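Narrative of activities, Objective 1.

The group set out to show that a structural description can be obtained from nothing but a protein's sequence at a throughput compatible with the screening campaign. Below is one input-output pair from the validation batch, recorded exactly as produced.
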Amino acid sequence: MSTQNQEPNNNKPINGATSDANNSNSQSKIKWLFIAIPLAIIFFLILTDSPPLTWHTDYEQAMELAKEQDKTVLILFTIPEANQGKLMVRACESDSVIGIIKENFVPIICNGRKYKKLVKEYNITSMPTIVLKWPNDEKDFRVKTFRADRLAKRLQDFLNEFPRPVKRVTN
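Output recorded for this entry:
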C-alpha cells in the first residue's frame, strides 16, 4: 500500500484546528481584560477620589449656613464660561486646597453677570476674584491666584490673620 492513498487519521487534530482553539481562548482572555481593567480603575477612583467641593450658588442661604457652622465664606466671583474662572475652581478643588476649604469655609460661587449687586457691594474690579470673610464681619481678604500651592498659603494666611470674630452676646 502506498502512503499517498492513505486517508488522514481523524483522531489527530489538524494543525489549523489547534491554533483556532488557542486563538479563541486568547480572544476570550482579551475580552475579559477589557472588562476587568476598566472596572478595577473605576473601583480605585471611587476609593481614592475625594468628592469635589459643594459650591453654593445662593448667596443668602450660604451666608446663613456659614453662621450656623461658624465658618468663613469663600466667595468666588467669576463668569462661568471664562477660562480663568475654571482655572480658579480647579485650584480650589486641588488636593492641597480642598481639605482646607471643606474644614474652614463655606464656598460660594457667584456669577458676576447674575449677581451685579454683590459685585458692586464687594467692589470687584476683575474676575475671577476670591473674597474671604466672616459672615458678620466688615473686613474681607482678597485672593487672586490660579496656583493651588499659593491659594493654600493664602487661605492659611487668612485663617491666621483674621481669627474668628468674638460673638457678641445681646441681652
